[in-house]
Design goal:
Shape: globular
Number of strands: 8
Radius of gyration: 22 Å
Distance between the termini: 46 Å
Structural class: alpha/beta
Largest sheet: 8 strands, mixed
Helix content: 40-55%
Number of helices: 14
């Protein structure tokens, strides 16, 4: 980690300090960018106030006209996301892009701990001066991820990163969360035993814009091609006559790099299909979705920190466990305590 990267702000930041931090972010100062992201991720009230000021300085109507690429990448554990992203990111920096990677790490539900090992899994990209990798723990909740990650994307763009890749844990609702904050959602699949696709659920297929069967190398190349052909045929039937974008399916190998450029070309084709107006409309809808996520996040924080709610919970819990009070009545009492 570069000295200063990822440090927690130590005190309340005044307006001048926030504006100085914003100027440093715009100037490409990597430690400043890391501090800004830490500020966004913080749940402290004073940090959140500073974060709001920072975002108001760095983002706005002008920033929304940015032509940056926002791409979500997901797939089941073991599909090779980190290797693929390193290969893709290195290819893009070699073409003159600046690449930011937001990697949402799976966290322990019991302890909240997270490995945060994406930099070790992407050694070449993490050493690339034109790339910035930021792992963020999911901490068992997607609400916080939606709030922090969605607000971090424009920070990276303000710092000059024109391609932002959002990697998800690939389980539960994380794919939907990632799709709600990017322009193009790329799904990585894995083929084994002939045409059997591992871990691709119908719900995920419905939000995917591009699908790539990864690890199409060595003995698995034939299986991958067969699986891609079968899946592509099924998707054409599903989308027949709709006139909408039909998610293309290709094979690639993040390990060897074969097909990775074709995957990116398909991302570009999807971007062309949407057009500038389509991307602008999608981002507008995402801003409103983020508004709802922020409201929900704030309400949950109030529930967690309200003394009246804590007292009501302590009083009602034994009554609900004993069957003396119904869950509906208890919930009403807890919400009433929040309003007091």
């Amino acid at each position: 980690m570069t000295p200063g990267e990822g440090r927690e702000p130590n005190s309340v930041m005044d307006v001048m300090a926030v504006r100085a931090l914003a100027d440093a972010v715009r100037g490409g100062d990597r430690p400043a960018l890391a501090r800004a992201i830490t500020l966004i991720e913080s749940t402290r009230a004073d940090h959140r106030a500073a974060a709001r000021e920072l975002l108001s300085v760095l983002t706005g109507p002008a920033a929304e006209a940015d032509t940056g690429w926002r791409v979500g990448i997901s797939g089941v554990p073991g599909v090779g996301k980190s290797t693929f992203i390193e290969t893709l990111g290195t290819m893009l920096t070699g073409r003159g892009h600046r690449v930011g990677v937001l990697a949402i790490d799976p966290s322990s539900v019991r302890t909240g701990g997270s490995v945060l090992g994406d930099k070790t899994r992407m050694p070449r990209l993490s050493a690339d001066e034109n790339a910035f990798i930021r792992p963020s723990p999911a901490a068992g909740t997607l609400g916080g991820v939606a709030r922090a990650t969605a607000q971090t994307i424009p920070l990276l763009e303000a710092a000059g990163y024109d391609v932002v890749l959002v990697e998800t844990v690939g389980v539960g609702q994380s794919e939907t969360t990632a799709a709600s904050m990017v322009d193009t959602f790329l799904l990585l699949g894995l083929a084994r035993s002939g045409d059997q696709l591992q871990g691709i659920k119908r719900g995920v297929l419905e939000i995917a814009d591009v699908i790539a069967i990864n690890k199409a190398d060595g003995d698995h190349a034939g299986d991958a091609r067969s699986a891609a052909k079968e899946l592509a045929g099924a998707l054409r039937l599903i989308h027949a006559g709709s006139g909408s974008w039909i998610p293309p399916v290709v094979t690639c190998s993040g390990l060897t790099g074969d097909g990775v450029d074709e995957v990116w070309n398909l991302v570009a084709r999807h971007r062309e299909f949407m057009g500038a107006a389509g991307i602008a409309g999608k981002r507008s809808a995402q801003r409103w979705d983020l508004t709802g996520a922020l409201v929900t996040d704030a309400l949950l924080a109030r529930l967690a920190h309200s003394p009246a709610v804590r007292a009501a919970r302590g009083r009602l819990r034994p009554q609900v466990l004993a069957g003396a009070v119904t869950p509906v009545a208890a919930a009403d009492d807890i919400l009433a305590a929040l309003d007091t």
